[in-house]
């Protein structure tokens, strides 16, 4: 069965992208920044912790800002990453004879461009670890660290033709309040407070790369960063597999036992695995409710009462209370801010 594309539903907190917006503001004029936010549908999100940001909005902002700032990393690093750098990176890694070799090419490419960090590629037993090592004492750019490590994973997955399993992701900053947002991006539970930001893979699970044509390379570039942030063939964490199951099923009436049956595991095992992901079945279901409600409020074609019924609330009052708990504002306020 083909995996549905959930990127139109997936959301992260506005705090998750605030480092990026701060870097952008220092990289362009106020009017230009306002234009970026308006054209990507994110004007209401800037500086508003109550807002949720869809991955589609992140993709649109990247595609606008990367071109118009003439920096493909949009101020996230001390040196601008000039146009066509990503194209050259893909051209370099697609010639690799193995996925570990592709990681080596990835690291050497970025080490020619970055001043404040350098990549180190090391092996520990069966683990292949790509670490981002600071040069001197640069300020940690949380969004930048996330984006470049996810780019490494996205490129490996593109070369392999499937979402490459990740053994671990660690970040060199303390656990933020929006830590749960990282589970939307990485197919493994993320840890914080590490010496260096890093991503690791098991060599034995790194299969051979596929031959990638120029047409496929151009398609990847045109869709950037969609296909490296949210890979199209993903087998994500347990929580995202549950989200996928709910989205395909009559999810409002689904219970944990239904999800466990679909995954061919016992309810007790599912509870244990979700606990390891730092979540619960109800939290995943509520997150899907929230993201469907946000999508429909932004779309503007349904009334609040219709949305309330669609996402399974017995009354509009219950929906209002839940939505305020999720976002800090009422559905009507959220709609007005995003209209």
Question: What does this protein look like?
Answer:
This protein is α+β, with helices and mostly antiparallel strands and 339 residues long. The chain has two domains: 219 residues, no CATH class; 100 residues, Homeodomain-like (Arc Repressor Mutant, subunit A). It contains 16 helices and seven strands. The chain has a five-stranded mixed β-sheet, with helices on one face. A two-stranded antiparallel ribbon has the order 1-2. Helix 5 packs antiparallel against helix 6, helix 10 packs across helix 13 and helix 11 crosses helix 12. The radius of gyration is 20 Å and the shape is globular. It starts with 10 loop residues before the first strand and ends with a helix. The mean pLDDT is 88.
Question: TL;DR of this structure?
Answer:
The longest helix has 19 residues, at 142-160. This protein has helices spanning 14-25, 30-39, 55-68, 85-93, 99-113, 142-160, 182-185, 214-223, 226-229, 238-248, 256-262, 267-276, 281-299, 304-310, 316-327, 331-337; strands at 11-13, 52-54, 117-124, 127-134, 168-171, 190-192, 197-202. With 339 residues, the protein is of the alpha+beta class.
